[in-house]
Amino acid sequence: MNVAVSLAQLLLVAVFSLSGVAKLFDRSGTRETVLAFGLPGRIAGPVAVFLPIVEVAIAAALIIPISARRGAAAAFVLLAVFCAAIVRSLMRGSAPECHCFGALSRSTVGPGTLVRNTILAAIAVLAAFGAGTSRSGALAWYSEIPSDRRATVMTIVVLGSAVIALASLCWQLLRQNGRLLMQLDEGGALPASPARRVTAPPLEIGEPAPAFSGHDLDGEFVSIERLLAPQTPVALLFTDPHCGACRPMLEEAARVQAEYADVLTVAIVGRGDGPALRERAHDLGLQRVIHDPDDNYFTAFRILGSPSALIVGTDGRIATAAVAGPAAVQLLADAGREAAQAVLAEPARR
């Protein structure tokens, strides 16, 4: 029983130390996950820092015999909180991206995530149940091994841990590559939200841009006619505040809005969580951000997912077909550069 308890504690040490350290090096991803689970933006930053510190502290407590039981109990409580948050998201029909192991693991929260955390919680109960003796602790199993066999056993443990870590990394890479291939088959877009899925074919170049009107996050009235009023092309960017892949496009949008404001109008359409969208827009200094809680604009422009982008010409017609993923970032960068070059070339034509 002591060996089983020690091995349970050792497993928890490996999980919580890896998770905590990885999160410390991926605080932006951790913050996005916290926002995705519905926490207010004002506390997302502190939680993104505090959570990995707690995980590392739990791992350290599990190693020390005098605190091993408390560490296992803390692990159970934290895992129970994670399970409750996952159940809440699944009941709401939400599937946020989870940076459970920082940048090492980015996956969508689902039943598998809940099962994994439930199993770890059961292991935490086992670790806490037998952690009361003076010899308990994650390394107590080592003292049970005869001295002449300890070197061999330790070598096996180290090599086994390395193999498991490598296998886990390979599995994550295979999953990510699989998702990437699926996205490429679907035009590079992330899946549309369950609330409304686009079934009509994409808008073709030359079609009139759908009419729309509303207000941006600053309360300013926005419509396709108003966006086209300066007689500049309009880049429409479609995003989700909980989409990790959208951030490069939004960072590029902030740059283009600052550098090419006179030759290209950039507007962002964000669906989903309004407060999280406002938080991200504020962080990046974005302008003309329109909230689309019911996917009305996504549907009107026949956007499959986010991040996506398209260009509307000065004549009010679709100038470029909608593209998604990294292609959306490139489209935006090229549009700004081409618009600037067109303005520079105008005096020469005269």
What does this protein look like?
- By secondary structure, the chain is of the alpha/beta class.
- Helix content is 56%, strand content 11%.
- It contains twelve helices and nine strands.
- The strands form three sheets. The chain has a five-stranded mixed β-sheet with strand order 7-6-5-8-9. Strands 1-2 form a two-stranded antiparallel sheet.
- A hairpin with an 8-residue loop joins strand 1 (97-98) and strand 2.
- It starts with a helix and ends with a helix.
- 39% of the residues are buried.
- The model is unreliable at 182-199 (pLDDT under 50).
Helix-strand layout with pairing:
Layout: H1 2-24, H2 27-36, H3 41-63, H4 68-91, E1 97-98, E2 107-108, H5 111-129, H6 140-143, H7 150-185, E3 213-215, E4 221-223, H8 224-228, E5 234-239, H9 247-259, E6 265-271, H10 274-284, E7 289-292, H11 296-300, E8 308-312, E9 318-324, H12 326-349
Parallel strand pairs: 5-6, 6-7
Antiparallel strand pairs: 1-2, 3-4, 5-8, 8-9
Helix pairs in contact: 1-3, 1-5, 2-3, 3-4, 4-5, 9-12
